[in-house]
Design goal:
Rossmann fold, 5-stranded parallel sheet, two-stranded parallel ribbon, about 45% helix, about 10% strand, globular
Length: about 350
């Protein structure tokens, strides 16, 4: 009984903290006006709002039950039952409730002028990673962004567009696929690089990407860290297959922490070297790890398995409305499919990121 009371008090404190922080952010915007006119997103399935719907790839989520808790209950191509982290960030900045995918033909520059997503599920810093699933490589995301800049200048005029480009917040979130779907799964990169050298290779790719964005006028940036990828349901299930108890894969979590440290060092270097840049390292590792280890503190009842299907391995086309095992209430689960968080978990991650990292841009 005492333990349950402790959980209840912790939940109440968490809810009150979130409400107060949101109130503070809104009051700050009311006093200062909107500092960031839009969010521009690059990355993988953690932030893809539907670009993969419009390319030839098996990595898609434009079908039920994906999106069942999204407004209108429609699948959008987001790998979640609802919104993803960047949607919540946009909302927290008072911009708009969701960020549209650049390749979605139902949107145009009038919508993209206040935020746009170039991310592609399955991609990585490494071009080999994107080739595995025929998705949009990071260099192509940048190419789309250059195309977008031309459209924005035609729409707003060169002077206003250039100012807007410098005021946008650029959110970059990728890297998990490079390790889990590439380095640790296939022999190509692991035969070329030691683990340490591969991390350095990816960090250099991240640095090159930031420098290119900077050269194109970007001045406010956020580089996202890796999650506790050894605790994803898919990786925990692999432990069961090989006779383990379904625990988190510590090796993968250590790699995530090590790579995050490299990204943090990169951010510190860029802050000193590039004049006028404001760049932060936004780390989702700890808050997601806390949710996984102490789900009841956050109002969840299950963090080892996902909501979709058996919760062990289903994602993408294996996570279909025909699967009879999918849960009824995704709010009880940290993970929606075997790789991606639920709408509720994404909201908690986003709130943590905004409070602890992105608040300097508010």
């Amino acid at each position: 009984m005492a333990k349950s009371g402790c959980y209840l008090w912790m939940m109440l404190i968490l809810i009150l903290t979130n409400l107060l922080s949101e109130k503070k952010m809104v009051e700050g915007r009311n006093k200062k006006g909107v500092v960031v006119p839009g969010i521009v997103v690059f990355g993988d399935s953690s932030v893809d709002s539907g670009n993969n719907n419009h390319i030839s790839t098996i990595l898609r989520s434009d079908f039920a039950p994906y999106g069942r808790d999204f407004e209108g209950g429609k699948p959008t191509g987001r790998f979640s039952n609802g919104k993803i982290v960047t949607d919540f960030i946009s909302e927290a900045f008072g911009i708009k409730p969701t960020i549209p995918a650049y390749l979605d033909p139902t949107y145009n520059i009038t919508h993209f002028a206040s935020g746009v997503c170039f991310a592609s599920a399955g991609t990585g810093y490494d071009n080999v990673t994107s080739d595995l699933f025929s998705v949009i490589p990071l260099w192509k995301e940048l190419q789309y962004y250059k195309e977008y800049q031309k459209k924005l200048r035609d729409y707003l005029g060169p002077s206003k567009a250039n100012t807007t480009i410098s005021q946008f917040l650029y959110v970059i979130s990728l890297g998990t696929n490079d390790f889990l779907e590439n380095y640790f799964l296939l022999p190509t990169r692991s035969s070329e690089f030691s683990l340490q050298d591969y991390q350095n290779f990816l960090a250099r790719a991240a640095e090159d990407f930031v420098r290119e964005l900077y050269a194109l006028g970007a001045r406010k940036m956020s580089i996202g860290g890796l999650p506790p990828m050894g605790c994803l349901p898919l990786e925990r299930s692999s432990r069961l297959v090989f006779g383990g108890g379904g625990e988190c894969v510590d090796k993968y979590n250590r790699v995530a922490r090590d790579f995050n440290a490299k990204l943090m060092g990169l951010v510190e270097m860029m802050e000193e070297e590039l004049e006028g840049i404001r760049i932060v390292f936004a780390n989702p590792f700890d808050v997601l790890y806390d949710m996984i280890q102490h789900p009841s503190y956050f109002g969840f009842s299950n963090s080892a398995r996902a909501c979709c299907g058996t919760g062990r391995f289903e994602m993408g086309f294996m996570c279909s409305k025909m699967n009879p095992f999918t849960c009824y209430d995704a709010n009880k689960y940290v993970f929606w499919d075997a790789f991606h968080p639920t709408h509720k978990a994404n909201s908690i991650i986003a709130n943590h990121i905004v409070q602890n990292y992105l608040s300097i841009f508010l």
